[in-house]
Amino acid sequence: MALVVQKYGGSSLESAERIRAVAERIVATKKAGNDVVVVCSAMGDTTDELLDLAAQVNPVPPAREMDMLLTAGERISNALVAMAVASLGGEAQSFTGSQAGVLTTERHGNARIVDVTPGRVTDALAQGKICIVAGFQGVNKETRDVTTLGRGGSDTTAVALAAALKADVCEIYSDVDGVYTADPRIVPDAQKLDKLSFEEMLELAASGSKILVLRSVEYARAWGVPMRVRSSYSNDPGTLVAGSMEDIPVEEAVLTGVATDQSEAKITILGVKDVPGEAAKVFRALADAEINIDMVLQNVSAIADNTTDITFTCPRAAGPEALELLSKLKAEGGWENVLYDDQIGKVSLVGAGMKSHPGVTADFSEALRDKNINIEMFTTSEIRLTAVIREADLAEAARAIHDKFQLGGDEVATVYAGTGR
Amino acid sequence: MALVVQKYGGSSLESAERIRAVAERIVATKKAGNDVVVVCSAMGDTTDELLDLAAQVNPVPPAREMDMLLTAGERISNALVAMAVASLGGEAQSFTGSQAGVLTTERHGNARIVDVTPGRVTDALAQGKICIVAGFQGVNKETRDVTTLGRGGSDTTAVALAAALKADVCEIYSDVDGVYTADPRIVPDAQKLDKLSFEEMLELAASGSKILVLRSVEYARAWGVPMRVRSSYSNDPGTLVAGSMEDIPVEEAVLTGVATDQSEAKITILGVKDVPGEAAKVFRALADAEINIDMVLQNVSAIADNTTDITFTCPRAAGPEALELLSKLKAEGGWENVLYDDQIGKVSLVGAGMKSHPGVTADFSEALRDKNINIEMFTTSEIRLTAVIREADLAEAARAIHDKFQLGGDEVATVYAGTGR
Quick count: other Cβ atoms within 10 Å of Cβ A372? Predict the structure, then answer.
């Protein structure tokens, strides 16, 4: 008998019909002899509808009240799933994040889990009950206020609960049936992976793959919780994310896949004095404004005037704020100019096999050259290559790299409708 | 400076626009120098929509999960009102029933408040904050499960909080601007009352007036909390419900108004043996099924066979269950027959002045006789007369009695659109 944590995304719960289908899967898992804990996102568009209402009553709603508002969405889906399980003869009990012992920092809207004390869940499991826990939410231990975990928070709830309960697996259900070698909507012959390591999944998530939220994979890796990505529309076993890259024998290490990202913008500062501390000023200003930067590139100094250019990427949503901030610092820093470009795209190749494949960088560059695609920035990690190119070239670049490294299969991948949360 | 508790019903909160209007009233009350605690119902049709979803996933949803589901509605309106108050510069903080210390019995769906420990609300008030409390919900102290208070629960929350906080007044806002001498939709010249006693309001509520829920008035009377019924659409001072009938000088005691009720059904058991304990069997069976009975009438025994007939009324919603129950007992009790009638209506005249008005019963009966309306059952209390008649005659009966006792005014009453919760 195993302890299984299952997380269902909003698209899997978008209607009463879908909720009944999810309940059937939950009850079947229980009847197969497992203990089952379920984590639910809000139904379909509920969160967007609540955000819309909030915007109508207050353009800048207080974060504490926003959390109180948004957590209602998960309470609704949670209670409905518990009811649906009960209608199939399962003994279900729902829990809010607070009732399930999800304790967080006090940062409303983007809290972090600091501890999980699931005593009530453990008791209910011992009584043979199926436990349904509201995702995305917790409670601040000091103030007893309700908090939310930010984007993808339900995945994080599921992994954290799985870790606290020492679950055998944390299954993440959405409308895709696994992790693919590329986004099948862009690369039609993309193949589903049976298994990949935490490190590879982390690199894919950091490179734009939306299938799992980075934070939940970090948590799963830290606590050694195997994750399984599955579709709530099929019985396909999906993709297992588990184990360390270090444990993969060299001869089995492969290239995992291609990821694309069009959520970033590029900012270039021209004519920065090439003396110690100048670059730090830039990044301190951005950090103080809580703007995350991703890739950074600093060219060698121009001999003529001893200045350099700094280029970095940041989330496109934060781009205008970053530009405004740096434009104000321009005179102070004596910079020549600050340039902004939000028409960029990032294409990455990820895989533990990269270490043992000589010439990967050359093949990657040549694949883009053959399509006449210019590389504007280029970075690498131990198991990843990333190029910044024009956004309009992104799909073609992904297909070219996928082909070059023979990641495709003979079959065209199945793509399900809808998008997960 | 006064401490004012304001309760807003669902129709007052049915849209972002209405929520902003409510927020303006709240902030104005605070600016006038009062401490303000606000209790919110769920927005407009939210509760019905949630009930509909529940019915789709489980025709007989578990009561605990139903409470978890329904309380989401008040959390949503609560957070939105707090945001709207903040957007007007007010310092607002929202509280769930649990956070506000509303402790209840464990009976899901119809819990009773056993204690209110509003320590967090008191602290927030001391900091000058406007406190927004989710109505209709509490928490069971033993199991820490969320409970709901049943129909009109938000009114009860408001009165209980007002009592615990020793508030100066509990204002109940909906889409009607006070308590009238009759339902203005039935009796066009019905007049708004400036003030009435708790006892009179209790009798009106028990006789079918829907403006205040019986339980909330009982609570207010027990704790001596003055209630004021007001409209969220106007600045009319509304109707004050306060004080005991005993304190009204005889010369000022008047007839308060006419109430109608078409929510009941009538059941008659024919041929019940007229020996001690036979009637008790009937009422014990109904009590065990948690069916409330209202009026009871037992005719004198027929000399011929020493049997009697028992007639009573009960909520129409429970009628079929009561009929089935009694039909099963028919053979056992040796009864002749059980008759069911759900086409009845109740018309009542209420007022402390009844005690000092001789001939009220005669005038009441004659008013109905003059319209050729037959009285099927008749009961009285110290300050109330009630007749059961045909449902189809109800409106005409109300107008006739209202006229007979000259309760009307020269003006036609204002009727606002919509219905409160």
Answer: 8
A255 Cβ contact list (under 8 Å, min separation 6): A349, A350, A351, A353, A354, A357, A360, A405, A407
Task: Indicate where chain A has its CATH 3.40.1160.10 domain(s).
Answer: 3-175
Between the two ends of chain A, the Cα-to-Cα distance in Å is 30
Task: Select from A79, A78, A170 the least CA-distant residue to A116.
Answer: A170
**Which residues on B lie below 8 Å from A82 (Cβ)?**
62, 65, 68
**Residue type at position B293:** I
Confidence class of residue A249 from pLDDT cuts 50, 70 and 90? confident
The residues in B 9-48 lying below 8 A from A, measured between CB atoms, are 16, 19-20, 23
Domain boundaries A3-175, corresponding CATH code:
3.40.1160.10
**Is A76 in Cβ contact with B75 (below 8 Å)?**
no
Number of helices (H), then strands (E), in chain B: 11, 20
B58, B132, B143: best mutation site toward chain A, by most A Cβ within 10 Å? B58
Give the C-alpha separation, A369 to A363, whole Å.
Answer: 10
Gyration radius from chain B CA atoms: 23
Is B220 within 8 Å of B210 (Cβ atoms)?
no
On the question of pLDDT at A113 being above 50, the answer is: yes
pTM of the model: 0.84
Record the tokens describing residue A265, joined without a space: 């913008």
Contact B112, B22 (CB under 8 A): no
Distance, in Å, from the CA atom of A80 to the CA atom of B37, rounded to the nearest integer, reads: 31
pLDDT tens-place string over residues B140-154: 988 889 999 988 899
Q: For chain A, what is the total number of helices (H) and then of strands (E)? A: 11, 20
Mean model confidence pLDDT for chain A: 91
CB B361 within 8 A of CB B384: no
Question: In CATH, what number does A246-409 get?
Answer: 3.30.2130.10
Q: How far is B51 from chain A (nearest CA, A)?
A: 10
Q: Which residues of A241-278 are buried (b: 16+ CB within 10 A; e: fewer)?
A: bbbebeebeeeebbbbbbbbbbbbbbbbbbbbbbeeeb
DSSP A271: E
**CB distance from A51 to chain B under 8 Å?**
no
Q: List the end-to-end C-alpha distance of chain B, in Å, as a whole number.
A: 30
A10 is in an annotated binding site: yes
